[in-house]
Description:
heterodimer, A: alpha/beta, Transcription Regulator spoIIAA, Arc Repressor Mutant, subunit A, 3 domains, six-stranded mixed sheet, 18% strand, globular, B: alpha+beta, Rossmann fold, Elongation Factor Tu (Ef-tu), domain 3, Alpha-Beta Plaits, eight-stranded antiparallel sheet, 14 helices, 33 strands, 33% strand
Amino acid sequence: MLSIKQIADILATVGSLYIVEETAEITIEANPGLANMAYLTAIRELGVNRLSLGVQSLNDAELALLGRIHTAAEAREAVRFARGSGFDNLSVDLIYGLPGQTLGDWRKTLDEAIALEPEHLSLYSLTLETDTPIWRAIEEDSLPDIDPDLSADQYELAEDLLAAPSYGHYEISNWARKGQECRHNLAYWQNLPYLGVGVAAHSYLDGHRFANTRSLDKYLADFSEKLPPVLDLDEEISPGLQLAETVILGLRLGEGIDINNIKNRFGIDILTHYNRPVEEMADAGLLEQIDGHIKLTRRGQLLSNEVFWRFLPG
Amino acid sequence: MEQALTRNFCIIAHIDHGKSTLADRLIELTGTLGREEIGEQVLDSMELERERGITIKAKAVRLNYEAKDGNTYRLNLIDTPGHVDFSYEVSRTLAACEGAVLVIDATQGIQAQTLANTYLAMEHDLEVIPVINKIDLPGSEPERVLEEIKNVLGYTSPDVLLISAKTGQGVPRLLEEIVRRIPPPAGDAHLPLRALIFDSHYDVYRGVIAYLRVVDGRISRGDNLRLIGQDTEMEVLEVGYFAPEPRPAPELLAGEVGYIATGLKSVEECRVGDTVTSVSHGAAEPLIGYYPPKPMVFAGIYPTQAEDYKELREAIEKLNLNDASLTYEPESSPILGHGFRCGFLGLLHLDIVRERLEREFYLSLVVTVPGVSFIITRTSGQKTTVVNPSDFPVPAEIAKIEEPWVKISVITPSSFIGSLMELITQSEGVYKHTEYLGHTKSTGEFGQRVRLEYELPLRSMLTTFYDQLKSRSRGYASLDYEFIGYREAKLVKLDVLVNDVPVDAFSRIVPPERAHDVGKAMVAKLKEVIPRQLFRVPIQAAVGSRIVAREDISAKRKDVLAKCYGGDITRKRKLLEKQKEGKKKMKSIGRVEVPKEAFLDVLKLG
Lengths: 314, 606
């Protein structure tokens, strides 16, 4: 976790190089258990105005399964600290689709998270990576398999529960009170340029997507020589691919893609250009057209990969 | 050399009972080759044969043996194929001999096929010399095996030799017995030529090489000969014998065994069992009835990659040059593409052909479930032979179905009888006979050995029967079968529909009372292997329009990348690209996208 001093330095450096708008969104991610009252108060005073808390679950057994060092009580405490230190834009991350997690377990975590009244929620279904402890436990039958249909039920339950306290479902995995959607993430989904600074940071500028080296030593060595960092990735995104990525990323959004917007940016009519996938996916009930937008249906959100690959070139 | 000093014989043995080792020892002890020259068993030359321990192609070796009586004898050892699928070739080999050495493993006793081949040798009036081999092994029970031989075949102690082909123990005496007991060939070199072809193979330079036994007359280089059965004419380009490498000779006389190079382009023109005579002074009657062996088992062979079709065709054509009993016809299937419906003598023959195509021609193959040929009489009175289930007429057009039946003989220790009888009965077997091979006083670990005789449809033997026979008997049971003719059958075609579309490659022919079980197993397997689609997919098994089994694959609900932020976009796009590539490799059946492997899994299902 960055120290208060480090955060102060970063913000001061940015401020000395750029004109930072007064309403700029400045987010810090923090884990419960580490974010105490003094720390949060200090960074809030430095100008950080959005806090994203990696709560993950409000069930201690699930937290232990995920290898988290914090407890549910500490997560609730972290939210209290955030409010007490003046954060009025708070996001909470939660995970569903855990092995053995019932619909009831998930409803309980969700209900309790809603009771904490965060402005923003990110709900992620567990992605099982090979060779992780959970993967091994499932292989060895000490944990049950993940049931994709139950995960789908959990997702749909979240949609229903969050609609009542009027959170907007503005992206596949993200919900927010109106006006408190995450601004920097929106830039990714709108496929707009962005600059990442620091080791392993990704950027998208001038038709290139690139990433700084993941090696801190290499990064610092180049930095001390006043050299640009070595890149781990440098990909030129062709106009065709830019279009496909814009569509795929845009479809992640609740409002979908604006047909006119695509016409202005790329000079094409999406309904003609992508005639086949659009029709096929509309027939399958995964896409719909509303008010000049094309968007995923409720079912389409959960099957979005099936929609997306059809928009890839080649 | 005098005809009286010639002995023509073969060795009858079960797989691994030591036939090839004994042949090597005979070659060595007669001084034909030194031990170090023999290397890997001389008679089995194909790599596949050596690995499987079976001989597929018969060959003949001439051995000169100086006997204790002071005479030098010419021994012609003719190799026999060891597997039931090649019983026609075995019978032709036996017809070329006056005697047979019957080899029985001292640790295992008589096996079903050995018994069948011994009876065949007796029918051909061969002098049989039984030997019990592997007496050097610690687990050997020569006493028990001796008693089996006595009970089943009627040979008693002094006539049965105890040997170890590996160490050579008892083999010198066997050589003496061969000379003493096996009669010299009859036949007259002055009569018109009659020679029996007992094997043939194709040679790129000299055309078909035919292995033959001259019964009457003589063959010289340059002779014009005719095959009585097939009416093929040819000129003899070369005459010779094997010792064990080919040695050209001026002529082959009555009673002798050797080869001729014919210049013919395919073994199909010069098949085993036919009689060779001379064009000018021809004999009228063949030696034994000639008939080309008919394929009994059929399967579709397809290349895994459609672009390999041409290579597959060329490879099958090449194999066919040397294997006239392999038949093939082009066939195509919407799922599997272009391939061939091939006919085989039996399952082992199918296995050998498949392995040779894969190993010698580096082909990746899809082989469909093996089936038999049905004779169908339509209501119109027209008769057709159907080898592909998808060609089965609709029930309303069928007046009568006939299918091939076999008589099987199973030799097993008595403890497994119950389980084996159950298996055979489930496989529609009809009980015929039980025979005990030994007395109770000499029972082995699993009881005394018993021979069971049943009749059953060949169809029921084609999938898991043999594997089950082996596993239910812990590997002890041995099986022999022979074709006994066509019998009327009550059978139906079971179709499988994926999303209401029938898939021809899955159709199979079953008795009506089995339709439900087979259909249920197939739809269950398909449900397991077909990935969930964007819509619900019914999988049904049907006889005509009657659905006998059904499973639904429910629609897929979740396929989503939860996180996609600035640092993920390239990686996530690559995942989608991979997904797209995967879809391209799928076969589409009635809008259902199915990985090809899924189809293969179901085709392999017994």
